[in-house]
Amino acid sequence: MTDAPATVDPGRAIKDGRQVISNLTAGGAAVALGALGVTATSVFYALSPPAAAQPAQPFDQALALAGAVAGARTMFAAGTVGVLSDIVMAVGAFLVALELARRGRGLAVAGWVAIFLSIVVFTFVDAIVGYVLSPVAALSDGVGAFTAFKRLFDGLFLLGTMAFGAGAMIALTNEMQSTAPLASKPLTLAGALTGLAGVLAAAACLAGFPFQQGVGISIGFGSAIFVAIGLQIVSKSQ
Fold first, then answer.
1. How confident is the model over 93-140, as pLDDT tens digits?
2. Structural domain includes residue 139
3. Is residue 188 part of a domain?
4. Is the pLDDT of residue 146 over 90?
5. What is the DSSP letter of 10?
6. What are phi and psi of 150, to 5 degrees?
7. CA–CA distance from 204 to each of 19, 50, 58, 156 (Å)?
8. Residue 2 within a domain
């Protein structure tokens, strides 16, 4: 009597007699988990004084200083949760890009690489908001240093948003055209449109217009959408 053949999860590969989780399954899970953390981070940003925790236009030094001191707790929470979530999501985006590169989908790879790079940028953004702005603002002679770090924070925030939005548009638009999409068309369309909104809002802020609320909203909505996208990637790789 022979044993029945063992069933193998399509999301896993067999190596040396063991089941190994595929890049796509691991990447999708990391994207979903990291994006969930980024969504929570967006809430902490929203609870913090806008002049300090957003790339506010025009820049008001006095309001930013006061906001950084008053919002020290929520900004610390945003930075701590944000940095950890950024690392997880960056790993996920990198793994998804690797799998798409193996499949020869160059345009989608370019989009996911842009997303990966934007998350790397946001690692610095979250570190600055959580561990630099409030402590420096509380120093009696920290005005000059605070202004420099706040300007850097604003610039990185806006450039990171543009990179994330552009990457989402490229990757998800290509996904809609794929014969074997990783996520549903309504979800990818929503993600691509949110990415476009983020690019436009960030570009407006760089030009000096007060569209920082639109930047924050696009990041919050975009991260929530990528939670669902990550879960669908895991589901479709099973």
1. 999 999 999 999 999 999 999 999 999 999 999 999 999 999 999 999
2. yes
3. yes
4. yes
5. T
6. -70, -40
7. 49, 17, 12, 15
8. no
> Token digits for 57?
């236009």
Q: Does the global pTM surpass 0.85?
A: yes
Structural domain tally of the chain?
A: 1
In a domain, 208, yes or no: yes
Cβ contact 176:185 at 8 Å: yes
Contacts of 159 (CB under 8 A, 6+ apart): 121, 202
CA pair distance 105, 173, nearest whole angstrom: 12
**Rounded Cα–Cα distance for residues 137 and 218 (Å):** 28
3-state DSSP call for residue 50? helix
Please give the residue range of the domain that contains residue 102. Answer: 12-236
| Cα–Cα distance, 172 to 189 (Å, whole number) | 7
Peptide bond into 181 cis (omega under 30): no
